[in-house]
Design a protein that fits this description.
Rossmann fold, 10-stranded mixed beta sheet, Universal_stress_UspA, Universal stress protein, UspA, alpha/beta
Amino acid sequence: METLKILIPVDFSASFKFAQAMVEVIQNTRPTEVFLLHVIPATGNLEDLEDTEAHLRQSTEAANSAFASLQPSFTFKSFVKVGPVVQTINNFAGETGADLVVMGTKGADGLLEFISGSEAQHVARYSAVPVMTVQGAYLPAKLQHVLVVSDFQNPTQHPPLELIKTLAAPDATMHLLHILQPQALNQVAEIKAHMQEFASLNGLNNVELHLHQENKVDEGVYHFNQDHQMDLVCMGTHARKGLSHLFYGSIAERLINHCSKPVLTYHL
């Protein structure tokens, strides 16, 4: 069985423990190689270069000391980098050949979300690697019930099912969810046929199909999870940027902030 390479961005807050707990769950299904990365934001200018260098030395020493005090159940390699936080995380994921980024997050609400969103949102938006975000509200003992959210209309836009199967428990149930909006009420038979075709093409045997009626997709996923005990929510994002992202947002990114269950996002 191949080793799964996992990158955990670390800010030494309580949220690291959420990511740590999830990696310990993943290790029950597959061997892992774990990289911990702390990013020191680049600050200062040429006029105070000496002060900046002293600050970076002190920050690096403090980070290395904090790494030494961590006691997760898994072995890890630790790294300290200087630069823009999101860009540095995503670049480092590429450098290490990471298969997955796991981030603990506290989410974001209201005005904070509109202005800047959570750091996890921004990593997910630009990462070429699937990103799993974990809030402390719900930490499963194993990923027994895995939810894949899609419209299932385009067969070429498949989630990274091999990764999802790797993360799931050996006897896991895969749940396929389509949020049925009012304008599509007359397409139920067609949608179910697409979902069944998706399950067949991807060799999903232990699978359940769900249609949940709601006006907005993110609210539908949120309410579905309130009524069903899912352990992992998987959803693709088109990674809209700029003004279009402000207007339309990303359903997957909003789930990162508001869904209490672990969320796996990936680019379609």
